[in-house]
């Protein structure tokens, strides 16, 4: 495994090293003064330190930034960057690296992943989002999670998107897409989805050996036809003024198994192992991989479903940001109980399927789902035992989830 610092610009890393030295000098300044009376060298070091730190704060990979929640060091050299090239020839070593990254961070960057169509997806995304609104919005997202997800200013995000959430093979004939999506474009989407699905299964397959469970214990819960395997193009648009009380992307965990995030611009932040906000770098040719709630539950918490967000501080209002995101979800009938526990399950415990888990988490997040076409249940109609079961699963919840639950209970 290599680390984020090893693939960043040498200039940036040199600045990071200098800053670390300067911080040490500043902390030990009294000692230096005692050794030699207010030496002009010491004075110059102080001046230089301020210049270097000022330079660092304006760097494209800002070395030190401050957030109202916590301190962020953007070039932490322990963040895992893993090459997929060793998957076939050194599977055990690769599996250990992936497991360690997923256990400690819940996130890692995967390079050499072999998906060739990423640039084409970005080109397609840019062209689509540049279309007039009346052309983009002819088919709004439906119960199959397919269609245009319009420009939103909500308590969760300021973004727009288009989703391709139908089962594999259906993109070619699905009617809930604007006419701009020609047969050729749809074939490209299908091919990209298939590549992402194959890569996600390869990653998921590595966890079985590390958890001491059967090789197919996890992959069997992830059919390519599962309705939750969604490809989404997302645009975080620029603004003339910062919207009041609207985040770029609110703090949250992903509910499925694995998420791939392809992006050309930084901005994504995660909670690091010390629970501070960490700014994930962009590695050319790499894809950000993160663990979702389902894998955390199956592994009894060994795999970490990590809070993440995009803040205005790290993605300015004047900037656009495009992301190509692929979500791998379990089959709806998959049971979300730990696969690592040897003891018999509680006979009185409710069998929590992934479909039921999705609905409860959705209600906790957004309130009533009565308006959705998939027959979502209102908050007040949820089995209280199932509701408490989800709340007690020890998977990360964000403040927005808790506040919605409090508001509904009040």
From TrEMBL:
Keywords: Iron, Metal-binding, Oxidoreductase. Residues 227-330 form the Fe2OG dioxygenase domain. Pfam families: 2OG-FeII_Oxy (PF03171), DIOX_N (PF14226). Transmembrane segments: none annotated. It comes from the Eukaryota. The keyword Metal-binding applies. Signal peptide: none annotated. One of its GO terms (molecular function) is oxidoreductase activity. One of its GO terms (biological process) is small molecule biosynthetic process. Belongs to the iron/ascorbate-dependent oxidoreductase family. This is Oxidoreductase. It comes from Colletotrichum costaricense.
């Amino acid at each position: 495994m290599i680390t984020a610092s090893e693939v960043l610009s040498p200039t940036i890393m040199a600045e990071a090293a200098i800053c670390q030295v300067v911080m040490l000098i500043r902390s030990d300044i009294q000692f230096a003064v005692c050794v030699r009376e207010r030496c002009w060298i010491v004075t110059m070091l102080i001046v230089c330190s301020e210049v270097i730190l000022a330079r660092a704060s304006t760097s494209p990979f800002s070395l030190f930034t401050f957030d109202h929640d916590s301190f962020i060091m953007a070039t932490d050299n322990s963040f895992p960057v893993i090459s997929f090239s060793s998957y076939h020839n050194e599977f055990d070593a690769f599996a250990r690296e992936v497991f360690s990254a997923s256990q400690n961070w819940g996130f890692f960057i995967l390079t050499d992943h072999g998906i060739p169509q990423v640039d084409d997806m970005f080109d397609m995304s840019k062209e689509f989002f540049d279309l007039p609104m009346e052309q983009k919005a002819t088919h709004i997202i439906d119960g199959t999670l397919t269609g245009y997800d319009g420009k939103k200013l909500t308590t969760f995000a300021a973004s727009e998107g288009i989703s391709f959430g139908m089962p594999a093979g259906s993109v070619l004939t699905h009617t809930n897409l604007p006419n701009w999506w020609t047969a050729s474009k749809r074939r490209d989407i299908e091919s990209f989805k298939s590549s992402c699905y194959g890569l996600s299964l390869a990653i998921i397959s590595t966890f079985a050996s590390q958890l001491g469970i059967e090789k197919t214990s996890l992959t069997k819960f992830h059919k390519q036809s599962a309705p939750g395997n969604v490809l989404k193009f997302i645009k975080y648009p620029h603004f003339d003024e910062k919207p009041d009380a609207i985040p770029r992307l609110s703090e949250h965990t992903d509910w499925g198994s694995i998420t791939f995030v392809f992006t050309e611009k930084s901005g994504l932040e995660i909670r690091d192992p010390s629970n501070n906000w960490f700014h994930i770098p962009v590695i050319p040719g790499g894809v950000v991989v993160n663990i979702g709630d389902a894998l955390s539950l199956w592994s009894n918490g060994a795999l970490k479903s990590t809070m993440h967000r995009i803040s205005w501080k790290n993605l300015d209002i004047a900037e656009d940001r495009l992301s190509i995101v692929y979500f791998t979800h379990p089959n709806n009938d998959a049971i979300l109980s730990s696969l690592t526990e040897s003891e018999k399950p509680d006979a009185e415990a409710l069998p929590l399927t992934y479909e039921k888990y999705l609905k409860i988490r959705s209600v906790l997040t957004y309130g009533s789902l009565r308006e959705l076409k998939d027959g979502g249940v209102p908050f007040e109609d949820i089995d209280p035992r199932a509701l408490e079961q989800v709340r007690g699963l020890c998977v990360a919840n964000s403040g927005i989830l808790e506040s919605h639950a409090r508001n509904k209970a009040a």
